[in-house]
Recover the amino acids of this structure.
């Protein structure tokens, strides 16, 4: 070991200790469900959704479930957040909202118990609802496509990770329900088949609106390149299903279709490959020539090279395609090579911040031990820790494109998710509960 290696290891050890301290602080601020809700005021209050993984009690429960897997004293806190989530109306919804969000949080909490039968009755009832919701989405999409090849664009709620079958299917895989997960997989395979637009064939994940606030730039809708809302999320789910033995007709071919489409739309700069946020339908040019001025999307989980890199790596790992894994690794290394000021990352959240990057790079470092990613892991942990402020309501503040930063307590865009990533870093170990499966990273 060189002197430089010794210094790096000592620095990393101190950072891991600091990460543990920050996690403890955030957990103390999030422990009381009523106080958490009360601390959300103004814009935070408008975003707070009690039955949400993103900004609600189920998302906060994920943190305490993971902490309880190491210290059973936290089991009661996780339970109180689950109870608070279940007090109101329980609507159907995708992985991040409604019944599926509560079911996911309850599954994670059950994993923290020595007796894994915890919440068995609740989960049986919730799972029946989730299976019916999966069938509703799947059957509706099948019937819509059978009606006409000119069936038009597909709604995000059919296929994406946040609201659609990629996320719902991942939950069903987690629960070991291969029949229901297979139904989701068949629907998503059909989404990968092209439909006819007025300008010719269009990939089936064509959405009839823009990817965000710039909807006017996409009068014909768009094809999304983000893991959260686009083709990479479909690819990640189909890959994870394949690894778990959930395989349906056309699944391998559909995965190849998505991989080829993604690689065809990669732009290239001095660092290497990248992707923008979206491309318009009918545009066969690579991302470097269209959409979002041809610039790379933010370097994050939700959009950009890191999320796509993980999806490509998962697909290559599932189907034994080493070139796909190499494309994913090359894209991640290129993203890390670009100056941090160009990453478009402004906070420490899982969705579009440093914590999500920390988890992706940590997982890729584990899967690619010769890639030299360990210094990047330590750098991203340090960057995440630098955003901590003990004076804030939950220790971290989240960036909003238009407006002042907000203090959000939840999982996807809030302090609970950041603390979960830091907790793994502090322990230098993977999570003991399945919280990161909600991001389709594993």
């Amino acid at each position: 070991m060189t002197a430089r290696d010794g210094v790096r290891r000592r620095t990393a050890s101190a950072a891991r200790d600091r990460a543990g301290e920050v996690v403890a602080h955030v957990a103390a601020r999030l422990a009381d469900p009523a106080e958490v809700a009360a601390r959300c005021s103004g814009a935070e209050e408008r975003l707070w959704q009690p039955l949400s993984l993103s900004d609600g009690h189920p998302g906060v429960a994920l943190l305490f479930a993971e902490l309880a897997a190491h210290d059973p004293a936290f089991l009661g806190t996780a339970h109180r957040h689950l109870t608070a989530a279940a007090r109101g109306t329980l609507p159907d919804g995708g992985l991040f909202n409604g019944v599926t969000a509560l079911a996911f949080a309850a599954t994670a909490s059950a994993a923290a118990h020595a007796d894994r039968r915890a919440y068995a009755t609740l989960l049986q009832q919730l799972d029946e609802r989730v299976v019916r919701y999966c069938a509703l989405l799947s059957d509706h999409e099948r019937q819509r496509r059978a009606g006409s090849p000119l069936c038009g664009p597909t709604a995000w709620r059919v296929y994406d990770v946040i609201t659609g079958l990629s996320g719902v299917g991942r939950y069903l895989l987690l629960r070991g329900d291969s029949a229901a997960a297979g139904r989701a997989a068949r629907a998503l395979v059909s989404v990968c088949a092209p439909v006819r637009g007025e300008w010719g064939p269009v990939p089936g994940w064509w959405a009839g609106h823009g990817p965000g606030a710039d909807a006017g730039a996409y009068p014909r809708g768009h094809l999304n390149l983000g893991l959260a809302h686009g083709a990479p999320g479909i690819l990640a789910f189909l890959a994870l299903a394949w690894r778990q033995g959930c395989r349906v007709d056309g699944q391998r071919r559909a995965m190849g279709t998505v991989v080829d489409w993604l690689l065809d739309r990669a732009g290239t700069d001095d660092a290497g490959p990248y992707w923008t946020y979206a491309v318009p339908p009918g545009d066969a040019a690579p991302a470097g020539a269209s959409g979002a001025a041809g610039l790379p999307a933010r370097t994050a989980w939700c959009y950009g090279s890191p999320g796509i890199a993980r999806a490509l790596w998962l697909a290559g790992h599932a189907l034994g395609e080493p070139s796909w894994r190499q494309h994913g690794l090359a894209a991640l290394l290129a993203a890390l090579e670009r100056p941090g000021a160009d990453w478009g990352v402004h906070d420490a959240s899982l969705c579009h911040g440093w914590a999500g990057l920390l988890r992706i790079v940590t997982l890729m470092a584990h899967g690619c031990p010769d890639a030299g990613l360990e210094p990047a892991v330590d750098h991203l942990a340090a960057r995440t820790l630098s955003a901590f402020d003990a004076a804030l309501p939950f220790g971290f503040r989240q960036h909003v494109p238009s407006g002042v930063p907000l203090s959000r307590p939840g999982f996807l865009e809030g302090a609970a998710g950041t603390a979960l990533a830091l907790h793994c870093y502090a322990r230098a170990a993977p999570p003991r509960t399945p919280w990161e499966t909600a991001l389709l990273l594993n």
